[in-house]
Amino acid sequence: MEIRERKNLRVKKYSARRKLFVGLFFLLIIFMLFKGTIWLKNIIFTKEKPPEKTTEGVEEISIPETKKNTDRVVEYIVSEGDIPAEVFSSQGKVNANDVVSLLSCAKDVYDFTNIKIGQKLRFYFEEEEKTKRIEYDKNSEEMIVVERKEDEFSACEEKISYEISQSVARGKIDNFFYVDAIEAGLQEATVLEVGDIFSFDIDFTTEIQRDDEFVVVYEKRLRDGKSAPDGKILGAKFVNSGTAYFAYYFDNDGKGGYYDTDGRLLERQFLKAPLSYRHISSGFTGARLHPITRKVSAHYQIDYAAPIGTPVSAAAHGTVVSAHFEGGWGNMIRLVHDNGYTTHYGHLSKFAQGLRVGERVSRGQIIGYVGSTGWSTGPHLDYGIKLNGVPVNPLKMNLPKGEPITGEQINLFEETKNKFGDLLK
């Protein structure tokens, strides 16, 4: 009897404990449901009415209500093999008839069949997905703009707008100028321009020494907040083998150019060399053992050894008087220049496309490519200069610089020079 009562008591205790656990479990569920309801209300309330922000330390700015901008812009970079009409159709959603109208209206401003690889096109769309404006970057300074008004197009050329700031790049030659200048922050086009500016005093192919120094003051530009091509070089200094050379950009009565410290235009009739070369394989001499005929003869020109295909430039402004194969000279170009000078360029692998007799060429313009045609033992350029028919040693020409600044302009130039004096120290 006692045993049975103990069993009943134990069963009652287990039953009471089970009820307690069940009750607590349901209370926990009710509590979580209650908290979840509050959390959901807070979210809904927040979306419907955001909390007020504190105004402490914040200046309130009243922004006028403007029309919502619904324009969509598609940017496209021209690729190799692109057909302009197909680009306008696929990227600009311009139908065949409108493409014809577009090309026709723009022909007097720019021929869109000549769009260049790597240049950008931007298409601006209206709400109904109809192109209302097309922009094409012709170069780093100008863009061609085509606008649609209903079913008609109009085209014009506009200057590209940049945010411009002045920047300074400094460096010392450790590897070679191109690499060190890029590391100093200059873009490739600016590096090449520095070489052009000082090319009449320094041969950047052979005369640059380790520990030479350079300073360049230039325009750093942004376009829509993004990095853009550098602008003008405003001032520059290059120290080559201990000698400092200076250049300042100056607008001389409407004609911009680079001038040295004395106010003389940094422009001479001839380049120091018509190509980038590895070394001079044969110099200017009255007695040289010809490598093929094995006879001693005069060599009144310079042989520049360079890989086949190296571009060859006109050494000065001039006119093409011949461009054909000339026996031992191989493929040869002859130019006539001002002041009685003539130049020749021999053993070329080929001529520049479209080069023809009678064509006027500019100093630095590519006219051909290094080869080994004719009597040649290896790829090189045979380059010669004559003055009134008499051979001249290209390496010893000491042509004067351009015209100096005169009159009232000299005072303005001094102001420009002084402005960049401290930066170029």
Descriptive report:
By secondary structure, the protein is α+β, with helices and mostly antiparallel strands. Strands 12, 15, 16, 17, 18, 19, 20, 21, 22 and 23 form a 10-stranded antiparallel β-sheet that branches. It has 3 domains: 88 residues, Nuclear Transport Factor 2, Chain: A (Roll), CATH 3.10.450.350; 97 residues, Nuclear Transport Factor 2, Chain: A, CATH 3.10.450.350; 118 residues, Glucose Permease (Domain IIA), CATH 2.70.70.10. It is built from 6 helices and 23 strands.
What's the SSE blueprint?
Layout: H1 2-48, E1 72-77, H2 84-92, H3 96-106, E2 120-125, E3 131-137, E4 142-149, E5 152-159, E6 163-172, H4 177-183, H5 188-197, E7 213-223, E8 226-227, E9 233-240, E10 243-252, E11 255-259, E12 279-282, E13 285-289, E14 296-299, E15 302-305, E16 311-313, E17 318-325, E18 331-337, E19 341-351, E20 360-361, E21 366-370, E22 380-387, E23 390-392, H6 409-419
Antiparallel strand pairs: 1-2, 2-3, 3-4, 4-5, 6-7, 7-8, 7-9, 9-10, 10-11, 12-15, 13-14, 15-22, 16-21, 17-18, 17-20, 18-19, 19-21, 19-22, 22-23
